[in-house]
From TrEMBL:
InterPro entries: HAD-like_sf, HAD-SF_hydro_IIB, HAD_sf, OTSB-like, Trehalose_PPase
Protein family membership: Belongs to the trehalose phosphatase family.
Function: Removes the phosphate from trehalose 6-phosphate to produce free trehalose.
Example of a GO MF term: trehalose-phosphatase activity
Name recorded for this polypeptide: Trehalose 6-phosphate phosphatase
Top-level enzyme category: hydrolase
Keywords: Hydrolase
Pfam families found in the cross-reference section: Trehalose_PPase
Pathway membership: Glycan biosynthesis; trehalose biosynthesis
EC number(s) recorded for this UniProt protein: 3.1.3.12
Reactions this protein catalyses: alpha,alpha-trehalose 6-phosphate + H2O = alpha,alpha-trehalose + phosphate
Organism encoding this protein: Emiliania huxleyi (strain CCMP1516)
SUPFAM superfamilies: HAD-like (SSF56784)
């Protein structure tokens, strides 16, 4: 990150007591891989997150299910001091040992279960399709699907939504996601997380007062992260996109840019001694 960008961040952080980190997982903390089920943190990143969360409120905000990120043996992150917002924020949990457990649209979970069954049955003949159960989100990974077969995948998803109007479709990088059709996304989840973080730390948490308490720093790489970037524009936070190339001005609502997960880790490490 260039010096001018770092100075912008420093200037904004002077207005608050602490930064509050909200971090996407795939493509941000962990590199994108061919098999989505194999996405893991690089060596040293879990320890970095532990140190960061010891100093500043820190959350993972991901499309992955919370259980994959946090819960017990084999979890992908499972850092005790970190907050988790899984399924694009439809399920939120506090650090290990806390009582924070918040679920959005639980009544629509049976609809998502049914959608997963339909997707498995109808997409099975298409080579390369990988369907992932992210609890409140049915993720259809298309990274390994040929261009010729993508229209067939689209047709199956669109047909499903005609039969299940309580669900909606969103798109990411090589993924189609089916989730509850309500006005909730990573941006909304981030705002709720910041409020809870302030409350658990005993800091002012009201809508106005927390602006001077915790400055959100959201880092993400995908389309679903744009909702969070938009919430932070105009000095309300620090939105940072992860892209291999510098983004065009109107291609993202983020205001700052990092190249890859390695640069993300280097950026976060700067806050360990701040």
């Amino acid at each position: 990150m260039e010096r001018a960008q770092l100075l912008r961040i420093q200037s904004r952080l002077k207005r608050c007591l602490t930064p509050a980190f909200c971090l996407d997982y795939d493509g941000t903390l962990a590199p994108i891989v061919t098999n989505p089920a194999a996405a893991r943190l690089p060596d040293g990143v879990a320890a970095l997150l532990q140190q960061l969360s010891d100093r500043h409120p820190t959350a993972i905000v991901s499309g992955r299910a919370v259980e994959k990120l946090q819960a017990g043996r084999g979890a992908w992150v499972d850092v005790p001091g970190v907050y988790y917002a899984g399924s694009h924020g439809f399920e939120i949990r506090g650090p290990n040992g806390s009582q924070l457990n918040y679920t959005v649209a639980a009544q629509l979970l049976p609809e998502v279960r049914r959608a997963l069954e339909v997707l498995h049955a109808k997409l099975a003949p298409i080579p390369g399709v990988q369907i992932e159960d992210n609890k409140f989100v049915a993720s259809v990974h298309t990274r390994n699907v040929s261009a010729a077969d993508l229209p067939a995948v689209d047709a199956v998803v669109n047909g499903l939504l005609e039969e299940q109007p309580l669900l909606t479709r969103t798109a990411g990088i090589h993924v189609i996601e089916v989730r509850p059709q309500i006005h909730w996304h990573k941006g909304k989840a981030m705002g709720w997380l910041i409020k809870c973080m302030c409350e658990m730390l005993g800091l002012p948490s009201g809508a106005d007062s927390r602006k001077a308490t915790a400055m959100p720093i959201f880092i993400g790489d995908d389309v679903s992260d744009e909702d969070a970037f938009a919430e932070l524009r105009g000095g309300r936070g620090i939105p940072i996109v992860v892209r291999a190339e510098a983004p065009l001005r109107r291609s993202t609502a983020a205001e700052l840019w990092l190249r890859d997960p390695q640069q993300v880790a280097e950026f976060l490490a700067m806050f360990l001694n701040s």
